[in-house]
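Deviations from the work plan: none for this task. Representative record:
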Amino acid sequence: MKPVPFRYVVARSLEEALAALAEGGDDAKPLAGGQSLVPALNLRLLRPELLVDLNRAGLDGIVRENGSVRVGATTRQAELERSPHAHPLVREALPFVGHVVTRNRGTVGGSVAHADGAAELPLCLVALGGEVVAEGPDGRRTFPAEELFVTHYTTTLLPGELLVETVWPAPGGGERSAFEELALRGGDYALAMAAAVLRHDQGVIREARVAVGAVTDHPTALAEVEALLVGNAPSDELAHEAGALAATLVDPAGGIHATPAYLRHLTGVLVERAIRRAT
Amino acid sequence: MGTATARETRASWVGQSVPRLEDEALLRGRGRFMDDLDPVPGAAHAAIVRSQLPHARITVDASAALDAPGVVGVLTGEDVRALSRPFPAGIDSPVPFYAAAVDVARYAGEPVAVVVARTRYEAEDAAELVEVDYDPLDPVLDPVAASETDACVHDRSFHYGDVDEALARADLVVHETFRFPRFSCTPVECYGVVADWDEAAGSLTAWANFQGPFTLHGVAAAALGLRGSRFRLLTPPDSGGSFGIKSSIFTYVVLIGLAARKLGRPVRWIEDRVEHLLGSASSTQRVTTVEAGFAHDGELLALRYDAIEDVGAYVRAPEPATLYRMHGSLSGAYTVRNVAARNRVVLTNTLPSGLNRGFGGPQLYLPLERTMAIAARRMGLDPADVARRNLVPAEEMPYRTPSGALYDSGDYAACLQQALELSGYERRRAEAAAARADGRLLGVGIACVVEPSISNMGYITLTQTAIERAQALPKSGNAEGALVTIDPLGGVTVRLGTTPQGQGHRTVCAQVVADELGIEPGEVTVLSEMDTQTVPWTVSSGNYSSRFSGVAVGAVQRAAAQLRAKVDAVREHLEEPELSLRRVAGSVHWNPAGLPEGMEPGLSVVAYWSAPNLDPPDAEDRVASSAAHGFIADVCAVEVEPETGEVRVLDYVTVHDAGRLLHPALADGQVLGGFAHGAGAALFERHVVDEWGNPMTASFVDYVTPTAPDLPTPRIGHRSTPSPFTALGAKGIGEGNTMSVPAAIANAVADALGRDDVELPLTAPRVWELLQRPPEGGGR
């Protein structure tokens, strides 16, 4: 379990990182916390010729500004977990991200850019309507997280572009959120997961974000479920109806541990639970 | 004699939970594990090329690899055939089993070549250049289908009493089929081997984290074509767990040994996790059909097993021992006298099986204890009452089972009662019934198991008929040796052949020796490194069948007692009864002329201890398959979440009678470990191949070993009925919960769901799927 030979460059700044990635082209990979990349290298699933180490590029840090929280790409997951600025949904979801030791090393930006369909942080970012900041040879751009994820391990980041920051909206008035996940074992990839972010006003759901992951190839907001909720008073019946609807909106492949039927059903259960708890 | 009296009146070290001698080094990160050893300079590194298909004719072309940077050479299946012989096993198999695939690969993950290079990196780079052409063959995967073909390599039937007659008069016959899935051990440390071939001497020296049994030393020597004395096997002082699986490393010791021989260079191989899950070993997979007859009051009248044992692609020694290890205990903890068994062994194109904690016990007790619970439900009886009706009574100890075991001691009913009381059984049953009436799925299950320890090396000869056995060398017993030495300064050293894998053997041996010599455990140095050239051992040496506390301490105690007698004799001769051990040692070493008339000089004793009653199988196929028998009563309460299928263990009580506990904290550690292993099998773990035979569980992403936070913590109770058949009255305790927990959890889930057709592992998705189907074999 040893990787194929590769070159390794430590970037001391974002500029150095971008330059190194540009030089390496398609055969270069940025290295952040390494909690997904290094196992993939050791299993020889990935064979980059160049690793550009971002850990000393000054890309970490958590800053609160203008009703949102900006999290630098190489901020450790554990740091966000402990941060008073972390959104309650994120604080709830982070304990499901791997294990304490992987969160000590794994980064927020790495998890988002890696775009595993079963990862918790991308789901939260989509559910909260967050944004990502990317910088590349053509400059810096900021765009909604929902536009980042394409499918497993595939994003809309351009060649040579680095995800440098994620932007997390702070909780608004009347907002309640909940995260639900079921895995076979603590710290495992989820069988299914769901996040609900609801804004209540005078006993009525005014805004709703409901997203699911692991049963889809990328974190997916369920617009039909959101539409069902908005304008209605929250109730157990409504949550159940929303869950049942969610179950019809996903088409998981299943695997050795669970059938597609189970995963669809579980999606409904978790969506229902998340909505109830966000009520 | 004054000192002896003083020593005897002081509390013994044995029985106390003294601090483990092992822990300081481990806690400081100074343990010495296989990969920490660098015993021969200049060892090159091996990477193993493995078959990617479960069954195929193969042609191997290593020429490109030979030209790769750093490569020393390549060993192929052709070399293995030329340099070694097939491994012998307990039954003749039509398929020769070599250390690497020769012409045909029979499981995905089977070694086909070994690439040796300066570094592991270069070895892995070059391994990718070995070209293997595969001509696929149909894989055999289903053990039941295989049992009707020539993949069935063993078929024996055993009859004790009159099962047909008893079934005919039974008020209820339970006739059910149970599947025990293939599961594994997954120690933190995987396999490792360093091999050094001495061409001039024609000998192999190998270091490996092998765990015994040392019968396998002979099996490996036979494959290498070496006399035992030319095959020196050593183990590191520490091992990162084994739980059975490191017995099967012997085929890799041969493989790496052959690489060292061919290439003329010491070779090191450290297995990685993917290799471990693909290519080390697993438990057997067993399909058992039970016919059990019961009287209306719950008395078990007759028991018939039809077992199909899937040992994977080859019969690897000591297989098919999984099928025979429990043979004396086919009747479990019960008084039933009419017992029959048909044992079939099948080969499939999957990873060969090997030792796995519980070794045959989980595969026996799941069908037996499920059958007891099913009978109770069908008769409307309390499972605890059915158990009580059938448990072997204390007054019948020692009790000879129909198939030949001699249960040594214990009050099984009292042990069950203690478990029931500790769990609040009546209350839990009532709560579960009330909750079910409310639509919740709560259940309570029990399991009563006899935990055999100290295997009879002769039980495996049950694979032969009595007539065949009569023509062969008889096999029996289980013996161990130990060396205890006192140096001129009075320092005491023990050498062991028990290859501990974390259990704390060094600590317990120090306690035993300290008691004998009147010193403190910390004054005793215990070396756990095995070396077949310098440590006293027997074929039965090693770390398996929970034999340490019963047998190995017997050898250590005997050696220490002989030394003590000598020390006391010297004191008496010198007329100095209070003379310190240090002065006695100095006197013996420095002044042999001053020894009593006729006394042998030196202060070093090798002693052996053999467990009694372990005769070869008799003419009626009865065998005392183990020397000691603990008893365990477990009570498990679960709630099943109907929405998701999750099984929550609400409470787990396990009460053990393992005889005298030599070190109570270590005993509890064994209980917790056995529990974790059993709960893994019950709720999480299973090796899976797809419909074409491709392994689907080759990493910890998919082979779901639970971690500590995933498991409930059992509440442990103890009783202590010393064994009359072991040196200090101790019985094994390390495997029992792996035998009992799958059955107890399955019983509790079946109770919660009100149905009989529960199948392991009881993961959330599988339980939910079960809930979507009508019950087979009836529901509540």
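The interface with chain B takes residues 1-5, 43-44, 182, 184-189, 191, 256-259, 261-263, 265-266, 269 of chain A (CB under 8 Å).
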